[in-house]
Amino acid sequence: MKQWLLLLVLFFGCGLVQADDSATLKIVESTARSWFKLVDDGQYKEGWEMSSTLFKTKTPEAQWIKSITEIRILRGAMTARYIATAGVTKSVSGFPDGEYIVLQFYTTFAEKGLAMETVTLVKIAENTWQIADYAIK
Questions:
Q1: Predicted TM-score of the model (pTM)
Q2: 24-72, pLDDT tens digit by residue?
Q3: How many C-beta atoms lie closer than 10 Å to residue 92's C-beta?
Q4: Which residue among 1, 2, 4, 23 is the one 20 to 30 A from 114 at the CA level?
Q5: What is the pLDDT of residue 22?
Q6: Which residues pair with 104 in a beta bridge?
Q7: CA distances from residue 101 to 2, 60, 76, 79, 129 in whole angstroms, order as listed
Q8: How much is the pLDDT for 3?
Q9: Is the dihedral of CA 128, 130, 132, 133 positive or negative?
Q10: Does domain 2-136 correspond to CATH entry 1.10.10.10?
């Protein structure tokens, strides 16, 4: 139920990425998938290092490695990941105003099946985005 509520909030609360923003969406999705590749491969330290200062401030490295290790042990290996939604916003709870894109992925795992992964990216320079937040449900 929370997943559907989050989808509705994203749909109505954020501007949807327009077709003319397809180049930006490709960059953002590529950045997210590169980051996911590190996490999927168990390179949690590298994933943390690739993330934005916002992410690093919110989640210290040791805490990140401990929590993502626990999550991934429970869920098992990632078997498939499909983008579900993309939304743009200037405001994300807990972060300063800026340019953000929130991507949601339907992801299947070997042990726990289907999950919703939400990754928020922040624009740090022209055509440069970094991970600001990650959640899985």
A1: 0.83
A2: 999 999 999 999 999 999 999 999 999 999 999 999 999 999 999 999 9
A3: 17
A4: 23
A5: 85
A6: 85, 118
A7: 20, 22, 27, 24, 9
A8: 46
A9: positive
A10: no
